[in-house]
Specification:
Blueprint lengths: L6 H5 L3 H20 L6 H26 L5 H21 L5 H17 L4 H28 L22 E6 L5 H4 L9 H9 L3 E2 L10 H10 L17 H6 L3 H8 L3 E6 L15 E2 L19 H10 L6 E7 L14 H30 L4 E5 L21 H8 L3 E4 L18 H10 L13 E5 L6 E6 L5 E5 L1
Parallel strand pairs: 1-5, 1-6, 3-4, 3-5
Antiparallel strand pairs: 2-7, 6-7, 8-9, 9-10
Amino acid sequence: MRPAKSHKKALKIPAFLVGGIAGLYPLIFLYSKNLTLISTWEHLLVFSTVALVIPGCVAWVLYKIFSKKNFVGVLLLVFNLFVFLALLTTALHAGAQAKFIGLSLLVALVLGYLLRRFRVKIIMLELILSVIALVALVPKLYEFASQTHNWMDQPDAIEEATFTKTPNIYVIQPDGYVNPSQLKRGYYEMDTSEMNAFLTTHNFEIYENFRSNYDATLSSNSSLFAMKHHYYQGDAANFELYNAREHIVSSNPVLSVLKNNNYTTHFITESPYLLLTRPALGYDYCNYSYTEIPYLSKGFKLKKEVKPALYEFMEQPGKTPKFFFVQILNPKHIDGGTKGENLAEKKRKIYQKNLNETNLLLQDIITHIQENDKNALVVLVADHGGYVGFESLFQGNVYTEDPDKTISIFSSLLAISWPEGTTVMYRDSLKTNVNLFRVLFAHLAEKPEFLTNLQEDASFLKISSGAPEGVYKAIDSKGNVVFSKL
């Protein structure tokens, strides 16, 4: 008789690799789909440990415990498939969900038993998939690594501006809040009289027909805080702008100017959306710490009220002026859901409800600021429009000949309560987000020459279908819908 083979030889592939290979393709897939969210070395260390090291160690332990059992090979295959499926669904949904983890275990049990004779081939197939995925990811990694911050360079010496007056500055950003001039018409048709009356009685100048330069929070705020256009860096393929969160909360010309003028800076937000990449904080204070934020998340499940943090930071003693950037996640743009009838009208009503709630919050915040900070400079500026008129958010990147839909993407609120004694309202210079801080700094430094380098008041959009794919100038500096490809 031939002697029976030992179970160690029958395994053919070391147990550690059985576990580690299972997580390799999900790890690469995670980076291919979420590169802008997990771009730090800290993320790579954490995810590599979770996807490769821990499964490898668990597989090794399982083998050591059950090495003398006949079912050890099937057990390791089931574990391999479970890790593969569980991590893949986690990467796909940008977070672990119990129902998908349970389903992964069930599928792994069934497939592990049915495919037990093909253990080696299955693991080799996972390895081949990983190599193919890595080859596809390399160009993205190279493009990401090649990005520079040169586009934020200023054409003049505004970063060295010295203010002659230093009021506390409150920049409050309600997400997707459309300009009152557009709320009255087009696809919105909403009554703005009550909020307009409140703003007027609280000394706000409302800038009619104001709009954003870009269509999403990250791209719009990158330009806002850089005081420059990035034109999506010429890339229409990526959903998010590379390094956008770093541009907004880590280092930018606006923060440089404020710090050069001894401002203490505060970032207060309802959701940690702008903090998901764990960027180095360029602000002195923030109402979130990274211990509260998962390494993999879309950022919308965590939520805090902004009023407690704002009011607390306002009361902190200090001899330096204060700057506050307050991000509110309402009324926000319509969602991406595409199921149901009369979607455009249903989403218009949801937007209106959110708008009413936002107005109440803004009224509370404004009243508190003006009662406790008499000479404050208070700015209400939205990041983009509400997309009302579309059935789905994703239709915003489809070419349309309907000008009201295009305007719905970009129309955004700007209302400013200037400090007492300010007579120049800069109506001709404040038309889009990109020039907001340049105008504010020109005023505070009493340097009108900074206004000679205003950026083009145009709005830009990525088009993915309905016209040749690319970045388009959707609205020109005069407010005309043009759609000319860059």
